[in-house]
## 1
Amino acid sequence: MPSPVPGTEAVPGTEAGRDDVYARLKAYEGRVAGAGGVGKDLVNEPMIRHWCEAMGDTNPAYTGADAIAPPTMLQAWTMGGLSGHGGRSAAYLELLGLLDDAGYTSVVATDCEQEYLRPLRPGDRITFDAMIESVSERKTTGLGTGYFVTTRMEVRAGGEPAGTHRFRILKYAPAVRERAVVPPPRRPRPVVNRDNTGFWEGVSRHHLLIQRCEGCRTLRFPWLPGCNACGCLEWDTVEAAGGGTVYSYVVMHHPPFPAFDPPYAVVLVELAEGVRMISNVVGVPHDRVRIGMPVRLEFEWVDEELELPVFRAIEGSGG
């Protein structure tokens, strides 16, 4: 390839730079990717059995005195395992290095193709050689832009051609994507059902409604379909006056939940009517919440769609 005229050197990332990279990559086609490989194990019945069990393949041709190996195991007999086969050829490493230097630093295996020339049987010794068969033009994919590199492995059994295995990778520069604007997390939505719809309708009107049994007149909270004192299924409601005290509380530090900023206090408020409900205290830091602290009902929008009943500490009540 002629040397570029001074002042016209190809710059990576430009059209000229990409053409220069492609021309250099094409020069590796036909060169050795690996030579003189020898399978670490003879073709054997245990590996065939493990493969068939993993694949769920019950073909009787793979068992018995005349068993053959499943054809799709062709590559399995050439694999080097964790210790490998001693490395790739210098040409293949140079090719990958050229792509790295040009900015195509990511890699993904894309597909393989196999051709079968003779069945493999237990006892066969596998040998193989590989070459760089092709390098594609520059392609743009969903992952990014890069080049497909295909190697072709010729597999032999006992010195006779047994099959061909083509393996293709994509060496690419990851696509630059604009970071999506992630909306702030929202509080979990309350579960609204036929048993508590009336409570949430009251909240929407800034009324904190408490159920009252029509049989024994017992107040209950949270809302239930029947009275847990007498079992009566009939009920009406009374509106809470809004006063209460902190009956108990816990300060949450961990684990973190979306839309909550720890540490924060979760309180059990005893309303003036005698029932208790779980909520949050606002108006004081979490470390100033105390049992017996007087509070008053408020309604607070926690996001653009959800309004909840909360309790504000009465001024001067903090510890």
## 2
Amino acid sequence: MKKIITVFFLSAAVAVQAQVKVLDHAIITTKTTIVSPEGADDNIAPPPPAAEGGEVRVMRFGGDGETKSVTTFKGGMIKTYTETDMSRTTVLRDNNKKMTTTLMEMMGKKTGFYTTDEDQQQMAKRMDSMMQSRSQTAASFNNGNQVSSTDIAYADETKKVAGINCKKAFIIATRKNGTKDSSVVWYATDFKLQGITSTGGMAGGFGNFGRTTALSGLDNLAGFPMQYEMKMNRGRKMIVEVTKINTEKEVADKEFEIPKDFEVKSMKDMQNGNGGPVFQTRIGGPGQ
């Protein structure tokens, strides 16, 4: 019986997938809310010392509270704009060139950096190595907590999100340590976005790099995720909800141009402190 049910789910997903349109342009407004349990430890470890004459800036994404972002895309170009009380961040993603450019307006300064997918992979490896060197116990816990596989179960429940009819699904994650947990997703059944798995969440200032904390399995969903919740470490919870989507308005090419008043450098140069600050990244809020 178990095998028959599994085949049914797969067949249903394939049938739905065949009817989904892939849109090549849209403007999406998304709200991301991160909530910590009462009494959570908000202590932040001090950043490492900078090289002589250098400067260290801690870039933290995913702190408690509500963040709104606007994602504009056309073909292989994607722009995500996020504004907080202290900063404005624009992430420009070129899927064709596999390059991400991040522009930041902070404390009156307009700076930016660009990085390739290959650079991001190398950065991720270095961060993993640093985490393992900090504590073998913590490294063992983190490795066991990683998602090894996901399954999707579709439900008959429906509701409207941002005026769009959505259906309910459960994404069931199996971790390397054998534990399982599920997340509720409400998804639009009749469209997906070209080159975009989801909006909002932890895209933060690093484009794809920030997606390391996105909900696993969204790319296999039979439609576009309009609302979902996911568990984070230290008992926190992230709620992502699309509040507005416009698929009719034409998107001009100039939307993806880099303003001339931004000083943009390679991420490698900025990490090495060559003519710029050393960046320490913390994704996921305090204590990361």
## 3
Amino acid sequence: MSHTAHIPSHRKPRRSAPKTALRAGVAGGVLSTIAVAGAAGPAQAEPVARTIEMPTITDGLSTAVAASAQATEQVAQNLRTQAQQDEAAASAAKAAKKAKAEAVRKAEAKKKAEAAAKAKAEAALRASRTQARTTLSAPTGGSPASMAVASSSSSSSSSSSSSSATGSAASVVSFVKAQVGDAYVSGGTGPNSWDCSGLVQAAFRTVGVDLPRISQAQSTAGTQVSLSNLQPGDILYWGGAGSAYHVAVYVGGGEFVGAQNSSTGVVQRPLSYDPPSGAIRVL
């Protein structure tokens, strides 16, 4: 007996043939299964997930955002500016409309006041003339004979004042009568429209007499004469001498021709239509 026979052997025990064959068969079956699965190929394989690299979209994004913000701010600023301009224009238009209405109101009030003042002055003037004529025509007593003499004298004076014009006076009378029916226009000097002093000035210019242009100056351009001693060609005036507001030409027969107003134009009327304040004689 060996001296080591009693020591267990350190070597692995040999495997029996049946176990080895069994294990080989199992391993072969597994490998066959794997081979079959591999042969089945992609049809039975799980889908493979691919990672696709997307393009980077953040390139220049900050620049685009900044530009968009700037454009938006500019549009907002433009809208604010336009709103301010519209508001200013509306305010200006409103103020102009208000100022115009106020100016029109003041002009109308002034016009009415002037018309009222003129009417009042004319009424007072006519009343004073009526009173003066009443005083002059009132009987002062005396015998019927003296009254008859006075009546005869008055008739004689009237006849004298209505006598036919001659010479330069006739030319003046003929000129103004020829304009009867023409229009009245303030500042008019002919040939188809006149104001009162423009007509008188043009009539006397035909005989070489250059009268002032306005009524006030024409009322002192000659010798003052009585209304009871008028002659054709005398200048009649309404208002005071030197402050007259209207003039005309006495044409005889107790009538005058003058450019009265825009409603009547140039007319021939009796003295009673609008009794004058005084008269001057130039010729």
